[in-house]
Design a protein that fits this description.
About 70% of the residues lie in helices and about 0% in strands. By secondary structure, it is mainly α. Helix 4 runs antiparallel to helix 5 and helix 11 packs across helix 13 (about 270-290). It is globular.
Length: about 375
């Protein structure tokens, strides 16, 4: 008994470097050791996040295949397809895994691991959807994998147990209140430029999404952490702060999806996806640093290598998403002349939309004259 008490007394004195060396040297014994329980939670959070992101990429490709098959066959709508709904279910499971991962690992680590979804999606599209692999895919995937390794290795390994009292303490801290004030002011300015001034720049829309994403990350980690603490230790669902964070999570997610959908309508996905990943990851890291103080006590080398890993992941995602091939659908605006019996012309007759005669009688006469010359 005395030996066990002496061991428990010396556990807090073990440094993070010693814990890391212990788990690398003998992972099985380390995971069964009480002194490395938080490291096992850290690894569990990483595994859950990676599996969730892989499921999300699989679901996206299943939905993409369902859309392609529906466009080729022209049969029932995609939302009546069992394959499309299976992709939706897989996406829900993947997002649930990401939600659970925030309860085990720091938010500044879980958010950058979203690049795993981009890598897996590129591999799946090449293997199963028979898309052409490009040199930028190989280089981007290599950089993203290297960045992910650096993130996992040098990220803050200590993740505190999220309780209702701890969330309340963090929520009223002066540095978070200052951060929240600055964020609200920036959001109002950007929203004024976007709605009132009509500035439809992609950076404006993506910054709106990123500012909302920082609140989403804070609330998601709080809700997930309190649910995990309620299951493993003490009930946290009886405190009002849990439901406050739950409302913030739902509201911020809803408005974030709204602005993201508007961005997808106005801009190409090859621009939205990498910019959203960079802005979301940066906002999540800043939120984790300010609200949860995840970089407190972290060595300068670890911080530098962590940020360098983020940079490599950003570059890799940009290279993978750059100039991705689009799904080609039949253009139904024009009428192919070779489909009409008695016509020899194989061109498409249609006036230019930017000319002054577009939609006028002169345009109709021009089309009729083109038809007469064919006869």
């Amino acid at each position: 008994m005395e030996n066990s008490s002496d061991f428990n007394a010396t556990v807090p004195l073990i440094s993070a470097e010693a814990l890391r060396a212990q788990i690398v040297e003998n992972p099985l014994q380390a995971c069964w050791s009480w002194s490395t329980a938080h490291v096992c939670n850290y690894l569990l959070g990483i595994i859950i996040s990676i599996c969730g992101n892989v499921l999300i990429s699989v679901s996206l490709n299943i939905q993409k295949y369902a859309h392609v098959r529906q466009a080729q066959r022209g049969s029932k709508p995609y939302y009546r397809s069992g394959m499309w709904w299976s992709g939706v279910v897989l996406m829900g499971v993947g997002e649930l895994g990401n939600f659970a991962a925030y309860g085990f690992a720091p938010a500044s680590l879980i958010a950058p691991l979203g690049c795993v979804s981009v890598i897996a999606s590129a591999v799946i599209s090449v293997v199963f959807l028979k898309e052409t692999i490009r040199a930028s895919d190989v280089v981007g995937g290599s950089l993203a994998i290297t960045g992910t390794y650096l993130l996992v290795t040098f990220a803050p390994h200590a993740s505190t147990h999220i309780t209702a009292h701890l969330v309340q303490y963090y929520a009223i801290s002066w540095h978070f209140l200052l951060y929240l004030f600055i964020e609200v002011v920036l959001f109002c300015i950007l929203l004024y430029l976007y709605k009132r001034r009509g500035v439809k720049h992609i950076v404006i829309v993506m910054l709106l999404v990123a500012l909302l994403a920082s609140l989403t990350v804070i609330s998601v980690k709080a809700v997930s952490g309190m649910i995990t603490e309620s299951i493993t230790s003490q009930l946290q669902l009886i405190y009002p702060i849990f439901y406050v964070m739950l409302v913030v999570m739902v509201a911020s997610c809803a408005f974030q999806i709204k602005f993201l959908n508007q961005a997808m309508k106005m801009f190409d996905a090859t621009e939205v996806v990498p910019i959203n990943f960079v802005f979301f990851t940066a906002s999540a890291i800043i939120a984790g640093i300010i609200f949860y103080q995840e970089f407190e006590g972290l060595a300068l080398l670890n911080i530098f290598m962590f940020l360098f890993g983020c940079l490599l992941s950003f570059i890799g995602v940009f290279l993978i998403a750059r100039n991705r091939p689009k799904i080609k659908q039949q253009d139904r605006t024009f009428i192919p002349m070779d489909k009409i019996p008695g016509r020899r012309n194989t061109d498409k007759v249609q006036p230019e939309a930017k000319t002054q005669t577009y939609g006028s009688l002169a345009a109709k006469l021009m089309c009729n004259r083109a038809g007469q010359t064919d006869d």
